[in-house]
Amino acid sequence: MTTILTPEEQVGEYAQYKSVRRWLMQLKKRSNYVEQGNIPKDTLDEVRYSIAAYTKFTNKNPDELIEDANRIIRTTGSVLEINDLVDEFWNQIPKKTSGTVMYSFIRAFYRHNGIALTSATPKAPVIRESELIPDSNIVRRHCDVAPIQHSSWILANNYLGLRIEAITLLTVDDFQTENWDKDLPLYPVRIRRELSGIYEYPAWIGHDAMTQLKTFFAKKGLKGSDKPFGYDSQWLIKVFKKYAYEAKIVDAPLGITDEGVPKGLCPYHPQCLRKRRQTIQESVGTNQNWVDFLMGHKPRGADASNYSKPVEATPEELYQEVLKALPLLEIYGHHNQSPTKPTIELQRMMLLEQLKSTNLDADKKAQIESLLKSIRTEQELQTAQGSLQNIMVTAKRIEE
Fold first, then answer.
1. CATH architecture of 343-399
2. Rounded to whole angstroms, how far apart are CA atoms 211 and 217?
3. DSSP 3-state assignment of 391?
4. pLDDT by residue (tens digit) across 260-315?
């Protein structure tokens, strides 16, 4: 499992400079309000990448840059020369999306060292690729091609809707595995405050996710405080995209890396599961503040200075709201306690009843019954209907 690094360790060699440490201190103070002092890893990555690129461009270390800037201000009385330098840095970056991000971080570096630049911040180019909010079929295809160490967290997050950083902090204990020997439609998961960054709240996963997690934990001998997905979050994002490409959910117009990851922007990424989870919960009519609470958001309408809970909702009421969404969340079949069964499920049951009326031998019936139970899409259902019709006609002829 990956050791969690301090902010200074994560920015590496740049932590030796007083100007960078001052910048990190300001980031820590800001993060203390929303994330208990934990600077998000992706923020620290941007700090390191941006300062590395900028120091290489200027051929000066961070402390020298601040000394230079203070000298220019004393000499000229303005920041225009520094503005020009940062603008020139932005101009030489070929990819303007990443360039815009770096520009904003370099401005922050100067600002937290007492130098406020006045040049306009460039706007990120419009991304024309639309974000893909997956349906159940897409999630199933994704999980089908991924190895269990990844399909299990993808399937679980279909229910949990966590940020990718929170996935890496989940422990076996959080899944409350003592409930897994029961036959339930939903199994409780504890989302600790460390994971949400706001408050502790209850969540649930379906029977299919529990089954995969149970198999994976047993295979790896994981228990207690073990973090089954305690990897680098950026690596998990790459893995997510890699298997999305292998499942033909996304293509790779710019090619793929040596690791098999599509290059460039990708419309399908872990955050899409979070949006799917919220959209489904809203679609079943759940109170908006309760939806926010179940997603680990600050409830809308609450005091902006207080991450309050929707105190009017009991755990049982929240459970019932998730249960309402269960038929839309389930990926591998529907539990017999799902509150409603989709049309496809009812049609499958009718086909199973028709199968029982044939004179086929027990082994053949069992084989076809297993095939029918594996149906997930309308196309598969139509194919099965045609095949079963042929089987029944053949069986009738044999009887005659």
1. Orthogonal Bundle (1.10)
2. 10
3. helix
4. 999 888 899 999 999 999 999 998 889 888 898 899 887 665 444 444 455 568 88
CA distance 215 to 210: 9
Q: Which residues does residue 203 pair with via DSSP β-bridges, in sequence order?
A: 189
Q: Is the pTM of this model over 0.90?
A: no
CATH 1.10.443 domain extents, the chain: 136-329
Helical H segments across the chain, by residue range: 7-10, 18-35, 41-58, 62-76, 80-91, 96-111, 136-145, 148-160, 164-167, 193-196, 207-220, 233-246, 270-283, 288-294, 315-329, 343-356, 362-373, 378-399
SS3 content of the chain, % helix, strand, coil (to 5): 60, 5, 35
- CB neighbourhood size of 297 (10 A): 15
Sign of the four-CA dihedral 151, 154, 160, 166: positive
Tokens 């989940």, residue located: 170
Q: Residue 223 in 3-state DSSP? A: coil
Local structure of 146: helix, strand or coil: coil
- Residue 368 zone, left/alpha/beta (φ > 0; ψ -120 to 50; rest): alpha
> Is it true that domain 136-329 has CATH number 3.40.720?
no
Give how far Cα 117 sits from Cα of 17, 111, 278, 288, Å. Answer: 21, 7, 39, 41
Confidence of residue 142 (pLDDT cuts 50, 70, 90): very high
Burial letters 368-382, b for 16+ CB under 10 A, else e: beebbeebbeeebbe
Eight-state DSSP code of residue 178: G
